[in-house]
Design a protein that fits this description.
- With 269 residues, the chain is an alpha/beta fold.
- It has ten helices and eight strands.
- The protein has one domain: P-loop containing nucleotide triphosphate hydrolases (Rossmann fold, 3-Layer(aba) Sandwich).
- The structure holds adenosine-5'-triphosphate and magnesium ion (MG).
- The site of magnesium ion (MG) has 4 residues, from α1.
């Protein structure tokens, strides 16, 4: 079975870092991986090792007005008075517009999707919804969506249709509060499987406190990733965390996360 994983959490907790490492580790195993950058301030491309020259040329899907117009019959920003096809065709979008990072990971940058979910029939939203619904069709494919910080996106069509929602937290009450709210909202929109990932942990006692707090909200802790300053260095240089020395502890923690996700995949079959 394919697995669609959303990565959410408060700003700066490490969503992009976790999504990028996870994607490359699946890619190294020979799995087909597509990552979606759903953060308007996107930087997932560098986290999966897309070279700078290519990064600079990426056009987000939301900015491809012609594409949206072609698929939906409406040009974004125009009135919706005309004929509007609610089921834009999406089969060839990955082949045409994805860029490739390291370990064979493919990336689609979504850009800014303005309108809310629910009853929104704006063209971008229809395109995105269909994209996510149909992208992962083949066995053993993985879709990983790096989400915008906070809660707003949970009202959007893009969050539905996910099999698992990972909520990244760091040691601190604010990110834990955000995580609990994300859990509630995700449950409301029908995502049942939600797991927390503690990132930037510096001690066992931090992990224990966080795990205890999460437990009270019914959020299982799937993995604990240590604080490692090499990740900050990698980020500053715009390179993938897997391409700097000294990140073995982080990588093995993400391997643990992968194992937990495999369990989820097994039970969903
Ligand atoms: N385990 C870690 N140890 C140390 N630094 C980390 C760790 N994980 C992430 N970082 C650093 O924290 C910063 C934020 O990480 P990242 O960009 O992945 O977070 P984010 O949740 O995607 O942020 P945003 O909300 O802005 O999208 C980066 O500089 C990153 O290198
Ligand atoms: Mg990010």
């Amino acid at each position: 079975m394919a697995l669609k994983i959303a990565v959410s959490g408060k700003g700066g907790v490490g969503k992009t870092t976790v999504a990028g490492i996870l994607a490359r580790l699946y890619g190294r195993e020979g799995k087909e991986v597509l990552v979606l950058d759903a953060d308007p301030a996107s930087n997932l491309a560098s986290a999966i090792g897309v070279p700078k020259e290519i990064r600079e040329k990426i056009v987000p899907i939301s900015r491809m007005l012609d594409l949206i117009e072609e698929r939906t019959g409406v040009r974004p920003g125009s009135s919706y008075g005309g004929v509007f096809t609610i089921n834009p065709k999406v089969d060839d979008i990955t082949a045409k517009y994805a860029v490739e990072g390291k370990d064979g990971v493919k990336l689609l940058v979504l850009g800014t999707i303005n309108k809310g979910g629910g009853g929104c029939f704006c063209p971008e939203s229809a395109l995105l919804k269909n994209l996510i619904r149909h992208l992962v069709l083949q066995k053993n494919q993985y879709l990983i969506m790096d989400m915008e910080a906070g809660l707003e996106h949970l009202g959007r069509a893009s969050s539905r249709n996910m099999d698992v929602m990972l909520v990244v937290v760091e040691p601190g009450m604010r990110s834990l509060e955000t995580a609990c709210k994300i859990k509630e909202l995700a449950n409301q929109i029908g995502i049942q499987r939600i797991m927390a990932v503690l990132n930037k942990a510096s001690s066992r006692s931090e992990k224990d406190v966080v795990e205890e707090t999460l437990k009270k909200s019914g959020l299982p802790l799937a993995a604990t990733i240590p604080f490692n300053r090499m990740l900050i260095e990698a980020d500053l240089k715009g390179i993938s965390p897997l391409d700097v020395e000294g990140t073995e502890d982080v990588v093995s923690a993400v391997q643990e996360l992968k194992k937990e996700l495999e369990k989820e995949r097994a039970t969903s079959q």
